[in-house]
Structure formats: structure tokens, C-alpha cells
Design goal:
The complex is a heterodimer of chains A (about 120) and B (about 800). By secondary structure, chain A is mostly beta strands. In chain A, about 0% of the residues lie in helices and about 35% in strands. Chain A is globular, with a radius of gyration of 13 Å. Chain B is about 30% helix and about 20% strand. The two termini of chain B are about 40 Å apart. The chains are: A mainly beta (about 120), B alpha/beta (about 800). Chains A and B meet through strand 1, strand 2, strand 3 and strand 5 of A and helix 8 of B.
Chain lengths: ~120, ~800
């Protein structure tokens, strides 16, 4: 379990900024869930780690244009909405990422789908 | 509870453009458009048209009412935002049906536009004095012009001249009063401005330059202008068009940083989190754009930001303006003057064409009387094209056709549509210019680009039968085009190529292809960016369906030793490898290895990577050959090991599996390999392009050579030719028939060309390093870590 109970309603410090190479993703764990956190050149994103298609590790996918492509069978998910572009029945939960100094914080509650609130990069 | 919407404040071109750009990217996100005016967004750029024609303002409406309903855009007409509460993310509305409503927003876009600038002079508020900004002003000016004796327009800029033309069309004599010493001084140089004045005079518009209006006078209604030098001009209708003032009061009231306009960054974000600004109200890098083309560029970036999409940053716009006055063709692009220029001038025909250069690059153009090639020149300015003979370039522009335009060239300035979008629409199956215009909106503004749109549609529908293989289908860029760009500009990283031409931005499927291309061109001396690589090439192992990896150490020619076998066995036990499998390529595969165990396992194995996970040189399978086999004609193991060592670690467009057989019995199955060599009586038969996968293809015989050394030389030349010319993921069995065996022989067997190919292969090979050595020097401390956690 990750430490819980920070200010501003943030519920968990999940890793440090430097833990994730630029342009890549890594899995983190919060409240027993695995979440893929992405450090793109244009900001941070977080979605479920597990691809709903066949369980592929989304943190290992290639990221471009705000989407991640699952390394197993190329299902492509929008990092902001969680929707799969090729299969409307597939979607992943998206989470709020906030970067405070050298730390990455995550709100353990999934954002409602379609929310596009701008995240602090 | 439904999530709060994106709220766009301002029903002008900018607000509309943001709505369009967001909807293009996301069909569902809720949008509210707050329009202060009691009408749907209209094309203000064409305002002078209704001044001339007297048509109702609805003629300029950008989209019909159904458009908003069909796209679930909640439009609030006649509603003003009184205040923004940044803390609560809410707006207070006033007016219309929304009066007094508090509206919550997820994100806010300020597209509040501008107000006409009115000089603080006496009499500016007299009846008969009008700004030229909205349909109401048009109506008043029209009515006034119909019965006035003499009209004056204060301001000789683009809008002022259009207004003057509108007034004169109602039969009233007009004088344009301009403070500066030439018309449209921001867009024109002296030469063009001097030629513009008589063209306006021909239309009935008199021009007075260097005139400062000190006051407006009249008894209950304007009847006279008085100038600073004491002169007077009788006028009973005065139109004021001296510029714009960004409308920032709402933003200032909320404490958002403003300078001249609302200050935005390269993502169109203001100083307030979740609040963006677009259009004439925004100030980007100290510039407020009062033109339409930049608005569309800004709106696209804003939409990407709103939807948290990666897109290109907004780096500012090249100002370009087109005078919409019947009978006078005028386009100005970028700078009017710099350190060098070429001018083609034909006074009697009133043609003035100027190309402006700064540091040898095109930085501006003025086209008066003959505006042919203006799209071509706009693109040249945007790209900062280098030119040695500017006059020749100017001539070439006038002869440029639709085919010469790059996809990025803006065709429709009114609606910000580039050639690529029109090409896409045609390729998507729209058959006629009419349908393409309806779908893309190109040509639906001022209409001056319709001919060009039609030309492009014709061109593309004729061409589409011959679609090339794109490396990046999203941006329609071929391997050849990208290779040319990388070489010409010396690019050495995937992100640089992306920044330069957008490849790799849209779907990212081409990033690994680009990574290969960059590495190949740079002979493996490129800047490696691992985020462009597939996971296998980040951890140098093959991902399995459960997220574990498989490890295949290299065994040259399929030969191993007892010591290697012992280490493999020990590692398999130590790391609890669930499956040890002999592969078809004569290797040992350790399957089900945890990612975190990879570096240690490689260290324990003490063998180089077998590259079984990569598009690279895989295995060279060999039979026993002459040393032990009683049928053996040639030393297949010897040649196979040599080939594998010569090529080991080289990446290729698609995987390359090879084989060497010591006699035509072909135990190494060399005739179904990408590269296969078979010992025959008196020499070696070299085969290429075989396959034994989903389909089976017998490899073609490239040549027969006498010695093993020659076989290595020939196959190496072919391998390099394939590395340099195949499309990404194109296996040799597709590449060989595509290029043709005869052509391949001409190149590969040619002494000079073959030697050059082998030299480039050697250069690339010299920079190869065993990727498994990253166990000691990872490119990132967490290279082999799947799960990261918070600091203890």
C-alpha cells in the first residue's frame, strides 16, 4: 500500500518523477490497484495497467498523440478518455495525476469518463 | 451527475473554430458556446460583402442551427459572461435565456475577440459616426450611405479600405483618411501602396495620406472632419476603422494575466489553470493577431490542449492578409521589407509582385494585381525556404500548380484548411469539389480559393489509384521522403523528425519504423530514444502473453558448448524458467522470465543477445557440413558462423532468418530462408527471398559463386541494399519480387556498388554493441523495472 492522506484531496504519492523515463510508462500500485502512469513530452497521464482485451501491460505500450498502444495486440486507448479507438466496447479507467516537485501523486478514484480537466504537468 | 462542460466564451470565428476543432477530435465531450450577439457565429471577415450586397447577416452564418444540435453543442445566444469564479470553476451569465445562471465548467476557452478602436477625439459619439465591426454597423452604414453627400472612412488599413469600397458601392463619394504615409502600412511596402492608391481611386475611393483627424463636428449629426493641421473635410457619414482592441475585460476582472491581450503560452493556456484563450483577444509571445488564419491554427492547438492530446505547439503565425475588394487583387504574406527583395512590377497593368528575403530565406511576399501562386509563397514563407535567385522563384510561384503545393500548404485561409485535408477528403471517397468543400469547408469563406480546391480534387482523384506505401500513413509520408528530410537536415533522433514534419505524432504506429530509419541512415550513430521503440527493444527480450519475457542467447550457426549449456541450465533453474524450448532456428529459448530478472540472467549466461525479439539479424541455421557429414560438399558451419558474426546486432526493416546448407540435400532448409546459401559441386549457390511461414516461397537464386568468402560478400551487399531500401516490416520475400531479381543482380553483383554497400554495412556494424550489456549500463535506472513505487 502507498501512503495515503495528503493535502488537496490527493490520495497517494505513487513514485518520483525520475522513476519514469521520458516518453515511457511504468506501473504503480495504489489501493491495491495497478495503474499505468505515463510521462509524455506533453504531460502526465494515468490509466488502468491491464488492457481489457487480453490483459496486456499498457505501461509498456508506445505512446503517441495522447494514446497508448497495447504491446500485445495493438489495442489503442485514448489516455484522456480511456476509450479504445478500434473497439468501442473496450475502455480503461483514467486517473488524475498531479506532479508536486519531484513526486508524482495519483488520485486513487477513477475520474468519471469524458472528464478532460487539465492536469498539472 | 454529468461532468461539467468545456465552455467557450465568444461566438465569433475563434469560438466557432474551437468548437469545430474539439468536435473533430472528440464527439462526446460536452461543449457550451456562449454567444454575446443574438445570432449564431458568422464570418466577420466577409462583413464588407453584406455592406455591398445588403444581404441579411444570416448570409454570413458559418453553420446552420442543426449543426450545433447534431453535435450536442449547447449554444447560449445573447448571453454575456459577467464574471468568472476561478476558484469554483463557474461563470455567471447575463442576458438571453441564461440570465443569472451560474454555469460550471471543466475548462474554459476565452474567445472574446476584440472591440473596434475608437480615437479619443471630440465628436466621436456624434450620430452619423460608426465603427465597422458587426452586422448592425453594416446596416447603419448602408442606410447612411444611401442618403449622404460625402462619406469619410478614418483608417486606411485592410478593413478601412473594404468599408470604403462598401460605402462607394451605395453611390456615395468616399474619402479615406489615413494617418500614415501609405495605405495598409503593416502589410505593404511603399511600392505596392503607391500602386494601390490609384486602384482604389478607380473604384471611386479618394485617399488622403498623412492626415490626423483632430475632431468630428456637426450640429446634432456629424458634418465635418477637422484635421490636426487645421484643414477640414465635409462629411455627413464617418466610418471609423483604425484598428482593434483585444477584449480582455472579463479576463482582467478574474485576475488572469493580460498585457495588450490575454497572455497565452504555446499551448494557448492563460495564467489560470484550465482557462485558455484563442483569437483576437489572445496575446501570444507579445503578438495579438487581428487576422483570421492564425485563429484556426490557435484553435487546433487549443483543442489538443483541452483534450490532453499531444499535438504540435503553437509557435506563432505568419501573418497573411487578402484584401477583399472587388476589382483589386491583393495578398500580403509575412514581412513587407527585409534585407533583400525581388520585385516584378508592371505599372501599366498595375501589377506589383515582391518577394522578401531575410538571410537568404523567403520571409514575405506582396502580390498586387496578380496574386497567382500566393498559396505556394505562403508555404515558402512558413517553411523559410532558401532561395538563391528570388526573381526566378517569384516567376516559378506564378506558374505553380496544385500539384506543386505541399500537403501542409494552406489553401483556404478563411477556414484554415490545408491541401492535405482536401486530399484526405478525396481519398475518403468524396467525388466532387462541391462535396469536398462542404465537408472540409474549404472555399466556403470568401470563395477565392474555390478554383484551387477544384484543381486539387481533380488532381487527387486521378492519382489515387497509385497510392504509395507510406511509412507514416497518418501524415502520408513515404520512407523516401523522410529519408531525404533526415539526410538533408542532419536529423538524428525520432523526436526531431516528429518536430520537423509531424511523423510519429498522430497514431505513433510509425515510431519504431522511424527509429529504424534514423538509425540506418546514421549508421547506428543516431541519438537513441527508447520511447520510440517497441517494448521488446526497450528490454531486449520478447514479451509473452502474460507480460513475462523470453530469452534467447546467441549461438553462432546453431553451435554451442558444454559450458554454455551448463550456464543455460543453471540460469533456467535459478530464475525458475517455466519452459526451455529448442527453436526452429537452432537456438535455446528460455520462456517466462520476469522482466526484473533479465539483467542478472544475462550476466549469468555470459552470452550475447540472440536478437530473437527484434527486427534484426536473427539466426543463421546450419547443417553439419563437410567436417563430419559424409555427404558434405562445403563447410556450412564455417560460413554460417562467419555470416552471423559479420551481421550480428544489425537491425533490419523486418526480421532476417538465414541458413547455410553443406549440400543440396539442404538440411538447414536454406531454400526457404530470407538469405540462404547452399553448397553445390564447385561452389555456393546464393539464394534470397525465401519463406516458410504463413505462405511458403522458394528463395530465388541470386548467383552462384566459387568460394565461401564470395558468398559472404554477395550476401552482405544484398543485406545492406535491403536495409537501405525496404519498407519497414517488408520481409525479403516481398522485397525481392518487388525490386526484381534482375535489378538486384545489377546492383549487388556490380563490383563498385557492391563494395559501397559492404562499406556502409561495415560502418553500421562498427557502431553495434551487444544490447545485453545494458545490464551494466542501463539507459535508465528503471529500464528493467515494471512496477515503480513511492520513496520509502
Amino acid at each position: 500500500m502507498t501512503p495515503v492522506g495528503a493535502s488537496d484531496g490527493l490520495t497517494g504519492r505513487v513514485c518520483r518523477v525520475d522513476d519514469i523515463p521520458v516518453g515511457e510508462g511504468r506501473a504503480v500500485e495504489i489501493d491495491g490497484r495497478r495503474i499505468a502512469v505515463f510521462r509524455t513530452r506533453h504531460g502526465w497521464y494515468a490509466v488502468d495497467q491491464r488492457c481489457p482485451h487480453r490483459g496486456g501491460p499498457l505501461a509498456d505500450g508506445i505512446v503517441a498523440d495522447g494514446c497508448v498502444t497495447c504491446p500485445l495486440h495493438d489495442r489503442r486507448f485514448d489516455l484522456a478518455s480511456g476509450r479504445c479507438q478500434s473497439d468501442p466496447d473496450l475502455r480503461v479507467d483514467v486517473y488524475q495525476v498531479v506532479v508536486r516537485e519531484a513526486d508524482v501523486w495519483l488520485d486513487g478514484a477513477a475520474l468519471p469518463h469524458e472528464v478532460t480537466a487539465m492536469l498539472v504537468a | 451527475m454529468s461532468s461539467p462542460p468545456i465552455v467557450v466564451v465568444g461566438g465569433g470565428i475563434a469560438g466557432q473554430s474551437v468548437c469545430e476543432a474539439v468536435r473533430d477530435r472528440d464527439a462526446a465531450v460536452p461543449i457550451v458556446l456562449v454567444c454575446g450577439e443574438p445570432r449564431l457565429p458568422y464570418d466577420r471577415v466577409r462583413l464588407s460583402e453584406i455592406l455591398v450586397s445588403g444581404e441579411a447577416p444570416e448570409a454570413l452564418q458559418l453553420r446552420p442551427e442543426e449543426w450545433y444540435a447534431d453535435r450536442s453543442i449547447d449554444v447560449r445566444l445573447g448571453a454575456w459572461v459577467e464574471a468568472i469564479d476561478l476558484e469554483a470553476s463557474t461563470l455567471t451569465l447575463a442576458g438571453g435565456a441564461s440570465d443569472g445562471e451560474r454555469l460550471a465548467y471543466a475548462q474554459l476557452v476565452l474567445a472574446t475577440g476584440s472591440q473596434p478602436l475608437l480615437p479619443p477625439i471630440e465628436g466621436i459619439d456624434l450620430p452619423g459616426v460608426y465603427p465597422f465591426r458587426g452586422p448592425e454597423d453594416c446596416e447603419a452604414i448602408r442606410l447612411g450611405a444611401a442618403e449622404c453627400r460625402q462619406a469619410a472612412v478614418i483608417g486606411g488599413g485592410l478593413l478601412g479600405l473594404e468599408a470604403a469600397r462598401g460605402v462607394v458601392s451605395q453611390g456615395a463619394p468616399v474619402t479615406v483618411i489615413h494617418l500614415m504615409d501609405r495605405l495598409m502600412e503593416r502589410q505593404l511596402d511603399h511600392g505596392a501602396a503607391e500602386m494601390l492608391a490609384p486602384a482604389m481611386a478607380d473604384l471611386g475611393v479618394e485617399v488622403q495620406l498623412g492626415r490626423q483627424t483632430a475632431g468630428l463636428h456637426g450640429n446634432g449629426r456629424v458634418n465635418e472632419l477637422r484635421f490636426a493641421d487645421g484643414d477640414r473635410l465635409a462629411a455627413d457619414l464617418v466610418v471609423v476603422s483604425i484598428g482593434i482592441r483585444p477584449e480582455t475585460s472579463l479576463a482582467r476582472g478574474a485576475g488572469i494575466a493580460c498585457s495588450r491581450g490575454i497572455v497565452v503560452d504555446d499551448r494557448m493556456r492563460t495564467s489560470a489553470t484550465g482557462v485558455l484563450a484563442v483569437g483576437e483577444c489572445a496575446e501570444h509571445r507579445g503578438v495579438v493577431y487581428g487576422l483570421v488564419a492564425p485563429i484556426h491554427e490557435q484553435a487546433k492547438v487549443a483543442a489538443d490542449t483541452l483534450l490532453r492530446r499531444i499535438g504540435l505547439d503553437y509557435g506563432g503565425s505568419i501573418p497573411s492578409a487578402k484584401l477583399k475588394v472587388m476589382g483589386v487583387d491583393l495578398v500580403s504574406i509575412g514581412e513587407a521589407d527585409a534585407d533583400q527583395s525581388a520585385i516584378a512590377e508592371f505599372r501599366e497593368d498595375r501589377i506589383y509582385r515582391k518577394l522578401v528575403l531575410r538571410d537568404g530565406r523567403i520571409s514575405g511576399a506582396i502580390l498586387l494585381g496578380d496574386i497567382r501562386g500566393h498559396e505556394n509563397l505562403l508555404e515558402a514563407v512558413r517553411a523559410g525556404e532558401e532561395v538563391s535567385d528570388p526573381l526566378a522563384r517569384l516567376v516559378a510561384a506564378s506558374q505553380a500548380t496544385a500539384a506543386d503545393l505541399p500537403d501542409a500548404a494552406q489553401v483556404c485561409n478563411c477556414n484554415g484548411v490545408c491541401k492535405g485535408e482536401i486530399v484526405q477528403a478525396v481519398n475518403d471517397g468524396l467525388p466532387t469539389p462541391r462535396e469536398v468543400m462542404a465537408a472540409t469547408r474549404a472555399g466556403t469563406g470568401c470563395g477565392s480559393c474555390r478554383e484551387l480546391v477544384a484543381e486539387i480534387v481533380t488532381l487527387v482523384s486521378g492519382e489515387s489509384a497509385n497510392e504509395p506505401a507510406y511509412l507514416c500513413p497518418c501524415r502520408k509520408q513515404t520512407r523516401g521522403e523522410l529519408a531525404g528530410l533526415i539526410r538533408a537536415e542532419g536529423l538524428d533522433a525520432v523526436s526531431q523528425v516528429g518536430e520537423r514534419c509531424g511523423t510519429g505524432y498522430d497514431c505513433g504506429a510509425c515510431k519504431p519504423a522511424l527509429a529504424y530509419l534514423v538509425s540506418e541512415i546514421k549508421g547506428n550513430r543516431h541519438r537513441e530514444e527508447r520511447d520510440a521503440r517497441f517494448i521488446n527493444d526497450r528490454v531486449h527480450a520478447n514479451i509473452q502473453n502474460d507480460g513475462t519475457f523470453s530469452v534467447v542467447p546467441r549461438m553462432y550457426g546453431g553451435c554451442t558448448t558444454p559450458s554454455e549449456l551448463r550456464r543455460i541450465a543453471d540460469a533456467a533453474e535459478k530464475y525458475e524458467v517455466p519452459l526451455v524450448k529448442i527453436t526452429g532456428g537452432q537456438r535455446i529459448d528460455l520462456l517466462g522470465v520476469r522482466r526484473e530478472d533479465l539483467p542478472e540472467m544475462w550476466r549469468d549466461l555470459g552470452m550475447p543477445s540472440g536478437h530473437a525479439y527484434a527486427k534484426a539479424i536473427r539466426t543463421v541455421k546450419t547443417c553439419v557440413g563437410a567436417d563430419f557429414c559424409r555427404f558434405g560438399l562445403g563447410d556450412s558451419i564455417g560460413l554460417g558462423v562467419e555470416m552471423e558474426k559479420a551481421w550480428e546486432g544489425l537491425h533490419t526493416p523486418a526480421k532476417v532468418k538465414s541458413g547455410v546448407s553443406g549440400c543440396p540435400r539442404n538440411c538447414a532448409e536454406a531454400t526457404v530462408k530470407d538469405i540462404g546459401v547452399v553448397a553445390v559441386e564447385g561452389g555456393w549457390q546464393v539464394r534470397i527471398g525465401g519463406a516458410a511461414g504463413a505462405s511458403v516461397r522458394e528463395a530465388d537464386i541470386l548467383t552462384t559463386v566459387e568460394t565461401a568468402a564470395e558468398a559472404l560478400r554477395v550476401t552482405s551487399a544484398f543485406l545492406q541494399y535491403y536495409r537501405e531500401n525496404a519498407d519497414y516490416k517488408e520481409r525479403m520475400y516481398t522485397f525481392v519480387p518487388r525490386i526484381g531479381l534482375d535489378r538486384l543482380r545489377e546492383i549487388v553483383l556490380d563490383e563498385e556498388q557492391g563494395a559501397a554497400l559492404r562499406e556502409r554495412l561495415a560502418i553500421a556494424k562498427a557502431a553495434v554493441q551487444d544490447p545485453w550489456l545494458e545490464r551494466d549500463e542501463p539507459y535508465h535506472p528503471n529500464q528493467f523495472v515494471e512496477l515503480v513505487g513511492p520513496p520509502a
